[in-house]
Design a protein that fits this description.
Blueprint lengths: L3 H18 L4 E5 L7 E5 L6 E5 L3 E6 L2 E6 H5 L4 H12 L12 H15 L7 E6 L13 H8 L3 H19 L8 E6 L2 E7 L3 E4 L2 E4 H7 L4 H9 L5
Antiparallel strand pairs: 1-2, 2-3, 3-4, 4-5, 6-7, 7-8, 8-9, 9-10
Helix pairs in contact: 1-4, 4-8
């Protein structure tokens, strides 16, 4: 049996790599009562979906047929990128010869993946929890308004970003059956380290970090970006 911390780290690596290579994609997190959370890579209309079930496998439809890639297959591979290419080929995404430049969204996802990888053997458990875009959306996303406020209020920049998000997209959100996850709470055990905005910002209690600018300033190093943004939490 593979420990959850390994599966979660690899899930985020594969999912974020797919988004990096196909910038129109995004990541959402689904939870059902009594079942482990599922990470979903999808396009805006959800015409294409790839599910990462931590308890079973990676699953997606290919030509109307459900395909499964077991976790043991991923962990047994000497070249994980080959599995990414297999998903691209079989799902119809298409193999990317050269990945496009990093975007605000993809740098957030890849930074989560990097932090989870760095924390695999940490004495603290690192994970990311998806947040709806604004408090009253929480009822649709399985989160009470009070819980949303308790999570986000200590991060003033995230509160402001949420207001802007609501003004820009509330009409579009009401027309969707599944809400996107524009914010992610970066957690270390029960402590919220930061609120990450897929517009490319990390909101900390003491201010905010432009993640894409920081990434470019490090010479495109995710590890150095993680240290610059969250160094105090990595010791």
């Amino acid at each position: 049996m593979i420990a959850d911390r390994f599966t979660l780290a690899q899930t985020w690596w594969v999912a974020s790599e797919l988004v990096r290579r196909h910038p129109r994609l995004m990541i959402s997190r689904r939870e059902s009562e009594g079942a482990p959370p599922v990470l979903l890579v999808h396009d805006e209309g959800e015409g294409m979906k790839i599910g990462f079930d931590l308890s079973t496998a990676i699953q997606f439809l290919a030509g109307g047929v459900l395909k499964r890639i077991e976790w043991a297959e991923l962990f047994g591979s000497n070249e994980p990128l080959q599995l990414v290419r297999r998903i691209e080929l079989e799902s119809g995404l298409g193999i990317v010869a050269t990945a496009p430049p990093m975007t605000e969204r993809s740098v957030v996802y890849r930074l989560i993946a990097k932090l989870l990888a760095l924390g695999v053997d940490d004495r603290y458990t690192w994970h990311a929890v998806s947040l709806p875009g604004y408090p009253t959306a929480g009822a649709w996303a399985g989160m009470t308004t009070d819980a949303w406020n308790r999570t986000v209020d200590p991060f003033p920049g995230a509160v402001g970003a949420s207001l802007g998000y609501y003004e820009r997209s509330s009409g579009a959100l009401r027309s969707r059956t599944v809400l996107p996850n524009p914010f992610w709470a970066l957690m270390r055990d029960v402590d919220t380290v930061a609120i990450l905005d897929v517009a490319g910002h990390a909101y900390l209690r003491t201010g905010s970090v432009d993640l894409l600018a920081t990434y470019r300033g490090t010479g495109n190093s995710l590890a150095r970006t993680a240290v610059l943004a969250f160094g105090d939490w990595l010791v």
